[in-house]
């Protein structure tokens, strides 16, 4: 039994070292993935061919883009293109998205931001259709009075 423990002791210490290195890298990076390139325990002195070597890690940090709140578009929709009060609803959702982003709730901010985007799209389409109908009606009316 003691021989079995002596055989497992180096393996346990190597695994513990790898685990501690992985936890250290994961703890001190925003989004990282540590991948060991070489690891192992050999009965050869360090530095010799086939012997233990330094474990190398590659840390990849991926920046996370903050969610968009579309506040400028919502202000424009509220001030200029406010059919059916959709601009006001978009502005309220944009402000809620900005508040959620400030608190750190990125999922809530994405939800409110996407709702504000949809409301802005619908508001812009309705306003464009309204302006187009006004132009067509105005030109038909003016052309009808000339003849």
UniProtKB/TrEMBL annotation:
Query: In which broad location class does this protein mainly occur, judging by the first location in its UniProt entry?
Result: membrane
This protein's record includes keyword Transmembrane: yes
Pfam families attached to this UniProt entry: CD225
Query: Known InterPro entries for this protein?
Result: CD225/Dispanin_fam, IFITM_antiviral_protein
Q: Which residues cross the membrane?
A: 71-92, 118-143
Give the UniProt subcellular location, in the record's own words.
Membrane
Q: Which GO terms describe its cellular component?
A: plasma membrane
Domain of life from the UniProt record: Eukaryota
State the UniProt keywords alphabetically: Membrane, Transmembrane, Transmembrane helix
**Alphabetical list of PANTHER family matching this protein:** IFITM1-RELATED (PTHR13999:SF31), INTERFERON INDUCIBLE TRANSMEMBRANE PROTEIN (PTHR13999)
Family per similarity comment = Belongs to the CD225/Dispanin family.
- What protein name is recorded for this chain? Uncharacterized protein
Q: Which organism is it from?
A: Lates calcarifer
**Upper taxonomic lineage:** Eukaryota, Metazoa, Chordata, Craniata, Vertebrata
């Amino acid at each position: 039994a003691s021989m079995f423990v002596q055989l497992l002791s180096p393996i346990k210490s190597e695994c513990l070292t790898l685990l501690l290195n992985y936890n250290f890298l994961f703890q001190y990076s925003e989004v990282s993935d540590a991948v060991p390139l070489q690891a192992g325990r050999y009965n050869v002195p360090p530095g010799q061919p086939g012997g233990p070597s330094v474990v190398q890690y590659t840390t990849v940090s991926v920046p996370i883009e903050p969610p968009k709140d579309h506040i400028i578009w919502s202000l424009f929709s509220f001030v200029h293109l406010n059919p059916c009060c959709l601009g006001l609803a978009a502005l309220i959702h944009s402000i809620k998205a900005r508040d959620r982003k400030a608190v750190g709730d990125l999922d809530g901010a994405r939800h409110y931001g996407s709702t504000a985007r949809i409301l802005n799209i619908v508001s812009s389409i309705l306003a464009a259709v309204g302006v187009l109908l006004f132009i067509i009606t105005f030109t038909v009316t003016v052309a009808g009075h000339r003849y």
